[in-house]
Design goal:
The longest helix has 18 residues, at 251-268. The protein folds into 2 domains: 14-168, Rossmann fold; 170-203 and 245-365 and 394-438, Dihydrodipicolinate Reductase, domain 2, CATH 3.30.360. The chain is globular, with a radius of gyration of 23 Å. The protein is of the alpha/beta class. Helix 7 links the parallel strand 5 and strand 6 (161-164). The chain has 14 helices and 15 strands. The chain has a 9-stranded mixed sheet. A 6-stranded parallel sheet has the order 3-2-1-4-5-6, sandwiched between helices.
Length: 448
């Protein structure tokens, strides 16, 4: 099907049509059976999708949305890391700079963003302001301010959005919430979440390397740095190792917190916490600590009791519950709900006898059509995706608040201090200097 590359080519381009249909909450197409039989997707239903950061996770995201859509553009600062994805979609135009891609290629309807965390907001907001729908990997942003802006811009430009925490579409997430809705636990007063990361995944607790090797010919290092403070290239940062560095990543909490907190927020209807306190192994200004524990306090809401949510990483775990049988695994990562009537590990009541006695909770929540399908259908005028930026930004803010409580610049003042949080007004009320970490200063030439 010939694409219109300009709004002047016809009275209404296909991207205008998709956008107007989304605004109207409807999407009219010729039925599939008329055009091509079962399984046929008519051109009017296909999105033109671009990817930014398409090596590793980004390549997987592109594959997940490519089945019934067109992959028309691919962008990555590292052509070697992106080589496999580049080869898989030979028809897609290739770029190094996302700004050039968005400016030159007018047929893009939607963008998948899977770069390091520090570039998420700038790329996503640029795309949304141009009317593109956006799928952005977790954590949604590198700072709390950016998360708030992402939600605001998505709403203002009426684009379909989704954060990349696929577990939100799972059956387990719904069963977890349905047990709580069925009062299987009574009032939930504590939740414990733990992960073994970063152990065996990337380095933390280290200083900046002194070596300055040559930048690989396949890598545009200046574009990788983006809005972060400039530093010489070193393989300690790229690929993937960037997660442990304050300037580029968000540590173990940023990496896994958006996955783990999402079902907790849904099941317990959490909003902004009132306070946060953290403890950790030694931490420096370059990388996150090797291990940490973060305590959040949430107020009562909608008839639910106040909740203390505790996060553990680096191999630290909560105390093993007495209800868990000796032969049951106490894994390297998990979620434990503690209520007045009992406890739940993941989405299973413990002990097993309690699970058998209670049985399955009544099925009350709608099931997902699939994490990526939610987003592509929302792009075509369907209902908002489950991890749309309005919800995803809230979870991301809470995750990143925990990282502020770990900042080495504040450690002397935080030793005996719990940060008091006014979430609505995006302020830390009892330690004003902590507010400077709600956002970071961008390098010259980069702006939201």
């Amino acid at each position: 099907m010939k694409k219109n590359n300009s709004k002047t080519d016809s009275k209404i381009s296909r991207r205008d049509f998709i956008g107007s249909a989304a605004a109207a909450g409807a999407f009219t197409v010729v039925p599939k059976y008329v055009l091509g039989g079962p399984g046929y997707t008519p051109p009017s239903e296909k999105l033109n999708i671009a990817g930014v950061g398409v090596g590793g996770q980004g390549g997987g995201d592109i594959r997940a949305v490519s089945g019934e859509n067109n992959i028309v553009a691919l962008c990555d600062v590292d052509s070697r890391a992106a080589a496999r994805t580049f080869r898989r979609y030979p028809q897609a135009k290739k770029y190094t700079d996302f700004r050039v891609m968005l400016e030159k290629q007018k047929d893009i309807d939607a963008v998948v963003v899977a770069t390091p965390d520090h570039n998420h907001a700038i790329i996503s907001i640029t795309a949304m302001k141009m009317g593109k729908h956006v799928y952005c990997e977790k954590p949604l942003t590198h700072s709390i301010y950016e998360a708030r802006e992402m939600a605001k811009i998505a709403k203002q430009y009426k684009v379909a959005t989704q954060m990349g925490n696929g577990g939100q579409a799972s059956e387990g997430t719904r069963i977890m919430a349905e047990y709580i809705m069925a009062d299987a636990l009574g009032q939930v007063r504590e939740v414990h979440v733990w992960t073994d990361r970063p152990v065996g995944w990337w380095s933390q607790g280290i200083e900046r390397p002194k070596e300055t090797p040559a930048v690989p010919d396949t890598l545009d290092w200046d574009l990788f740095i983006g809005p972060a403070p400039y530093r010489p290239y070193n393989p300690a940062y790229h690929p993937f190792a960037w997660r442990g560095w304050w300037d580029f990543g968000t540590g173990a909490l940023g990496d896994m917190g958006c996955h783990a907190f999402d079902p907790i927020f849904r099941a317990l209807k959490l909003g902004y916490p009132t306070s946060v306190h953290a403890s950790c192994t030694p931490v420096n200004k370059e990388t996150f600590p090797l291990a940490s524990t973060v305590h959040y306090q949430f107020p009562s809401r909608e008839g639910m009791a106040p909740v203390k949510l505790t996060w553990y990483d680096g191999g630290i775990k909560p105390r093993r519950p007495d209800q868990l049988e000796d032969n049951r695994k106490w894994g390297d990562g998990g979620t434990l709900f503690v209520g007045d009537k009992g406890s739940m590990l993941g989405y299973k009541l413990i002990p097993e006898s309690r699970s058998i006695e209670f049985g399955k909770p009544p099925r009350k929540l709608p099931r997902s059509i699939g994490h990526f399908k939610e987003w592509t259908e929302a792009c075509k005028g369907g209902k908002p995706a489950g991890a749309n930026f309005e919800f995803a930004s809230l979870v991301t803010e809470v995750v990143l608040l925990g990282n502020i409580a770990l900042r080495p610049e504040l450690k002397d003042k935080l030793t005996n201090t719990t940060l008091q949080r006014d979430g609505t007004n995006m302020k830390i009320t009892n330690l004003p200097e902590a507010n400077e970490f709600l956002h970071t200063e961008y390098r010259s030439g980069w702006t939201l």
